[in-house]
Amino acid sequence: MAEYFIGKKEYFPGIGKISYEGPESDNPLAFKYYNPGQIVGGKTMKQHLRFAVAYWHSFGADGSDPFGAATHRFPWSFDASTPMQAAEHKLDAAFEFFTKLGVEFYCFHDRDLAPEGASPAESEMNLMHMVELAGERQKATGVKLLWATSNLFFNPRYMNGAATNPEFSVVAQAASQVKAAIDAAIALDAQGYVFWGGREGYMSLLNTDLGREKEHMARFLAMARDYGRSRGFKGMFYIEPKPMEPTKHQYDFDVETVAGFLRAHGLDRDFRVNIEANHAELAGHDFQHELETAASLGLFGSVDANRGDPRNGWDTDQFPRDFHETTLAMLAILKAGGFVTGGLNFDAKIRRNSVDQADLFEAHIGGMDAFAAGLVAAQRIIDDGRLSAFVAKRYSSFDSGAGARFERGEMSLAELAALATGYGDEGRTSGKQEHLENLINRSILNL
Ligand code: XLS
Ligand code: CA
Ligand code: CA
Description:
Helix content is about 45%, strand content about 10%. The relative contact order is 0.11. The longest helix is centred in the last third of the chain and has 28 residues. The protein is globular and about 85 Å long. An eight-stranded parallel β-barrel has the order 5-6-7-8-10-12-13-14, surrounded by four helices. By secondary structure, it is α/β, with parallel strands linked by helices. Bound molecules: D-xylose and calcium ion (2 copies).
């Protein structure tokens, strides 16, 4: 991968290319487990993991929160005299970061890449200018766009929703943004396009026509899909579930809800889910639950790799660190067949008081190491075979005879009921949960 910063202004001076040094290394700016070329289950770690950096957090989140001002000072914004110049500098800083870290992908919202203009036409012009520059940098470095999306939640016009806004004029404004962002995705050869409906929900049912809003959302998504396909977009469309925040209730509550919605509106061929760990937690699910649910429904697509804080239940978007969680996640992902167009996007931000430049690197290094170690442990579990053998055996009474006829739909309830008389005291078979949990722990520790 070409190192983009060479010969340009360096925004992260003193930090070079991050390399693999192994678990014994004490260098905070080196990978301990992520060794891109290492083969795991027939593919390299890099091919499996498809890491992406999230433009908005890494180069946009300034550390401000509802109680305090910005704490992160971005050199690329204070060495510029106009918002567009700042966007250009930010792009250079971003590509310097991607290449130093050695990630293959990045993701952005339209407004992360280019500032909004005074009119839809000006916004589109700004975006297209930045797309051209991003395209040049992608070509120069080999870094690719995992997915693009449009920010349909920041501008006050979206306070009552975007595609589900009760005012038609706002729906049209959202369409102009999505159309331009899909054009940008196509121009940059994005592998996917995400819809996260941050404001597609309600604050109160008293003022909300639920049925109409959901119909509007489906209509809008179908129009976006048709537009993208008609312009030659071959990538995947994704919905990113989240149950709440900023609204009280979001329509894309969790994977199962999104699946029902996609199927009801004939969208399940073009859309998959982009699953975020922290959103799973907000929905009251494990990350593994959302991944396995998506796989079971044939909708697994991509992942926003982060973590929440189980004690406060907010969308804290912290970097992943928990080997147990990454192992179970990678096991689900491997079982689903791995990523095709998707990848592991670090939708995570460094803390407000993490103000050293190295902090952004160490945050990503730790996340990449956590998933690399999780991948290795998950592959160990698969190679060991005992977990899958146990599950297969657990359902084996459906593999042949009457059980198989039941599964194939060749039996009536009366026939099924009649079989009961031939059976004795079945059912007290151990689920072996603790035994299996111990197996997972031994794989993580490689015992
Ligand atoms: C917010 C979401 C958002 C999406 C992209 O909670 O995670 O960042 O990933 O719009
Ligand atoms: Ca996300
Ligand atoms: Ca989030």
